[in-house]
Backbone:
């Protein structure tokens, strides 16, 4: 199995390649393939969330009917769940530090904590969605409903996938399949996790904190 | 994981296989290991096989798209045509556009990149071989999914641009075509993004020693830029398609004007993707032409660094011109003027490229082979298309041209006269490398001239028709408009193109297989892929070459004398001959990634999910099918993650012991440099998908 076959390959930094060939110049980025792929993927994700956030921003205050953000948001509640999600970045860093030290027990502890904090956040989102629906806001209600649910829903799906990856790491580690040589796996999934957190900071600011322009207005598109 | 060359065998000959450990197979499927036959193609992760599969599949879709084009031309050949109904016509032109963009030019360009980039940069495979297979299968399934719409109540009929709210409000367009269009494009988007991440990482990380970025062959450069554009453009259309999906399936209001939704948002998102997409389609062809011209002009590419930087400039500026697709929308003078100017600016790096191609030809000793003819045809046709493109940047004249056949003429001159001419040239040029046989030159030249004449007959008159005011996307026109003559000419031209294609197919499938085999370097070419046998062995390079200059292989064969004339080096013949025998020595141990079932399983699950979403449209319970599809994909991803990219060497030895496949040095012993090409894929997550289980290899 991989765990035992190729650890030295994972350890090796590609930057060391040229050294083996004498004076050849560096012909790679010095970042491992997996990490570079994750960075490119996250670049792609930036455009995905960029387009979704732009859509939300464009439609702020342009709903023809209520409810509007003003009479439905519970900012203190969402602030707490945002805080929970941001704390999960801290535990993610602690998990990475643990495996770098070779402390597999703490690695599992912090990974589980990260997944747990993520789950609390998702639970909070489910509760929020449910209460909004009870207050009469669905995807069909108005532009606000459509763009709110799709944007935060996309983010929620990303967090959920992240939780699944974290729990998979915990399981792998428990079965001894995540030796210290594979620290990079934790690092890469950490990159994803931090990215999802950073996106939430933007979403929280744009969606919740910046007050909407006058509701019910039919202002023409900004771009026109 | 990067190719890591283990230290060369020391005198003590350390046992390279010792680290193999227990060969724990995957829990429920035995690892595929055939290297011949049907299953070997289904499970392959070899970039060369996948490249051929991409190109062949793209070519098959090209024929389908071509048949659709012929139907369009038959319908329009005469006034008041009645071969197709209005709805059928809409389906046919929508599928024609969607096919040619997403199922032909994009995948064929990716196919060439797949095949050539590792060979040109001196690598043994791409960074993530299984992800590569996943991209291919998802592309194939996505294409089949789109075409299956003809069987399930009608193909997409909202145009390849799918303008909302026409596509987003159920009932505006008859049939379920728009659903197939949305989900088909989502699948293809995932496939292209995954493929693009793969090629970007491969190019940036896996170049041979000495090959700095400015010693990299120009085709690899242009592919790199195009794949970067794919990485960043695809998510934008993904979002646009998801918004339409939520409107259609779940009653959201994004593009519903009755609820305040704004149809212009769709156009902004679509063209913000759509214009970089134009460069995704043309940049690889520019790279192909830039490879062909120097070989047959026997001169280096004129201004190579300028070519690279103009490509990069196009890549950046391509993001700032999309409004020129929307000049007639009414965005106001500021937006229109700004984008007029940026559109004029982007003609500059493109013009630089054209002058550099001419500079490459200038004073060269030209060999007018088929690839060269197509390359020169590319320059001429693309210049015409580029010039009519500049006329669009002037918004007053653009308003006259919008939605007329003038636009149709323009983009066919850049996409057919440009991209397809480049691709045809590339097929003739690299065919001997991929299959070890030269395509028949005589038939190739007939193919070129028929294509050239047919192409200009088809699309040249469309300029006139457009300026006479013939609108696009109409299924017929009246006799009193006097548009009949040029439409008939155009239709005749389209059939000439089809005849030329039949010549090409006859050449590939009937004549060429009987032709003699060729050497590794039949064209006396310049780049690394010609320094290995034709077709290349599975591991590409027996020994990873060290690169000293741009066009390294050329400089091993030629030099310049004091007066700057080209002279052959004394070892010219020896270098070319050694390319034919550039295979692994007996006993050399090259460890390649193993085939896998899971890429095709994962892509299959996604297609099932897409069908479920379409069925769910009529009955909510059918969304369960989507859940099943997603579960298949997730299961496949776990199995994929838990399976090592390359099986431990011993297992190979055991399983392949009796294979007689061409040089299989991997199994001949444990001495020599062991190549662990290790390529897990956790990191590259297609949008909306994930790959749990982590990097397991």
Residues:
């Amino acid at each position: 199995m991989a765990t035992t076959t190729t650890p030295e390959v994972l350890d090796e930094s590609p930057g060391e390649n040229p050294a083996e060939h004498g004076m050849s110049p560096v012909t790679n980025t010095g970042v491992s393939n997996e990490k570079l792929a994750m960075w490119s993927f996250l670049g792609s994700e930036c455009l995905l969330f960029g387009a979704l956030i732009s859509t939300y921003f464009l439609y702020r205050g342009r709903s023809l009917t209520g409810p509007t953000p003003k009479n439905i948001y519970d900012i203190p509640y969402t602030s707490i769940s945002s805080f929970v999600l941001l704390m999960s970045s801290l535990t993610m860093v602690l998990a990475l530090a643990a495996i770098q030290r070779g402390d597999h027990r703490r690695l599992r502890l912090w990974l589980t904590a990260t997944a747990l904090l993520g789950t609390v956040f998702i639970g909070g989102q489910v509760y929020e969605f449910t209460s909004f629906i009870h207050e009469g806001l669905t995807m069909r209600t108005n532009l606000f409903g459509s763009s709110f649910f799709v944007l935060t829903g996309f983010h929620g799906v990303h967090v959920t996938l992240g939780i699944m990856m974290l729990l998979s790491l915990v399981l792998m580690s428990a079965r001894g399949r995540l030796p210290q040589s594979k620290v990079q796996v934790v690092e890469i999934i950490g990159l994803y996790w931090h990215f999802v957190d950073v996106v939430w900071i933007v979403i929280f600011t744009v969606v919740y904190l910046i007050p909407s322009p006058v509701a019910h207005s039919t202002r023409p598109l900004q771009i026109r | 994981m990067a190719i890591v060359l283990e230290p060369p065998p020391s005198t003590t000959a350390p046992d390279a296989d010792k680290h193999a450990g227990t060969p724990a197979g995957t829990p429920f499927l035995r690892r595929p290991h055939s290297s011949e036959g049907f299953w070997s193609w289904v499970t392959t992760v070899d970039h060369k096989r996948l490249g051929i599969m991409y190109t062949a599949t793209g070519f098959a879709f090209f024929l389908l798209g071509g048949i659709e084009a012929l139907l369009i031309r038959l319908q329009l050949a005469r006034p008041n045509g009645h071969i197709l109904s209005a709805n059928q016509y809409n389906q046919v032109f929508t599928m024609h556009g969607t096919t040619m963009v997403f199922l032909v030019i994009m995948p064929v360009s990716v196919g060439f990149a797949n095949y050539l980039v590792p060979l040109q940069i001196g690598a043994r495979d791409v960074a993530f071989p299984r992800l590569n297979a996943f991209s291919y299968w998802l592309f194939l399934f996505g294409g089949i999914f789109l075409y299956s719409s003809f069987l399930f109540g009608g193909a997409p009929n909202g145009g390849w641009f799918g303008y909302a709210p026409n596509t987003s409000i159920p009932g505006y367009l008859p049939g379920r075509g728009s659903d197939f269009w949305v989900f088909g494009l989502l699948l293809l988007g995932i496939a292209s993004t995954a493929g693009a991440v793969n090629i970007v990482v491969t190019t940036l990380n896996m170049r041979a020693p000495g090959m700095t970025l400015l010693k990299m062959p120009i085709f690899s450069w242009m592919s790199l830029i195009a794949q970067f554009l794919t990485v960043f453009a695809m998510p934008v259309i993904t979002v646009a398609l998801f918004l339409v999906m939520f409107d259609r399936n779940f009653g959201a209001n994004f593009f519903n004007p009755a609820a305040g939704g704004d149809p212009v948002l769709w156009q902004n998102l679509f063209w913000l993707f759509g214009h970089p997409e134009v460069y995704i389609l043309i940049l690889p062809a520019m790279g192909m032409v830039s490879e062909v011209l120097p070989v047959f002009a026997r001169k280096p590419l004129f201004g190579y660094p300028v070519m690279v930087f103009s490509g990069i400039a196009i890549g950046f500026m391509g993001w700032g011109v999309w409004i020129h697709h929307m000049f007639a929308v009414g965005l106001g003078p500021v937006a229109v003027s700004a984008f007029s100017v940026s559109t004029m600016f982007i003609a500059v790096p493109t013009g630089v490229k054209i002058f550099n191609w001419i500079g490459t030809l200038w004073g060269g000793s030209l060999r007018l082979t088929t690839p060269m003819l197509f390359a020169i045809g590319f320059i001429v046709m693309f210049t015409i298309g580029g010039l009519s493109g500049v006329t669009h940047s002037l918004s007053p004249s653009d308003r006259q041209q919008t939605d007329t056949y003038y636009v149709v003429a323009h983009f066919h001159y850049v996409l057919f006269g440009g991209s397809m001419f480049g691709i045809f040239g590339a097929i003739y040029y690299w065919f001997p490398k991929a299959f070890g046989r030269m395509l028949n030159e005589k038939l190739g030249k007939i193919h070129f001239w028929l294509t050239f004449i047919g192409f200009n007959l088809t699309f040249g008159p469309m300029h006139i028709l457009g300026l006479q005011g013939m609108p696009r996307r109409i299924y017929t026109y009246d006799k009193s408009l006097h548009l009949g003559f040029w439409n008939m000419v155009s239709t005749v031209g389209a059939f000439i193109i089809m005849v030329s294609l039949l010549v090409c197919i006859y050449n590939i499938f009937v004549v060429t297989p009987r032709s003699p085999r060729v050497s590794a370097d039949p064209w006396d070419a310049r780049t690394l892929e010609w320094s290995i046998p034709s077709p290349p062995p599975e591991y590409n390079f027996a020994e990873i070459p060290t690169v000293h200059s741009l066009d390294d292989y050329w400089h091993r064969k030629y030099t310049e004398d004091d007066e700057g004339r080209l002279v052959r080096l004394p070892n010219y013949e020896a270098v070319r001959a050694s390319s034919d025998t550039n295979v692994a020595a007996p006993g050399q141990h090259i460890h390649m990634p193993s085939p896998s079932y899971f890429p095709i399983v994962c892509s299959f699950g996604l297609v099932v999910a897409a069908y479920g979403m379409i069925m769910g449209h009529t009955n909510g319970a059918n969304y369960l099918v989507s859940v099943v599809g997603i579960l298949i994909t997730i299961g496949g991803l776990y199995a994929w993650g838990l399976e090592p990219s390359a099986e431990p060497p011993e297992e190979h030895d055991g399983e392949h012991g009796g294979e007689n496949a061409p040089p299989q040095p991997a199994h001949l012993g444990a001495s020599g440099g062991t190549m662990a090409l290790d390529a897990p894929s956790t990191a590259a997550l297609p949008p909306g998908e994930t790959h749990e289980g982590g990097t397991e290899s």
User: Anything to note?
Assistant: Chain A has one domain: 33-62+74-209. DSSP finds eight helices and no strands in chain A. The CA atoms of residues 85 and 118 of chain A lie 6 Å apart.
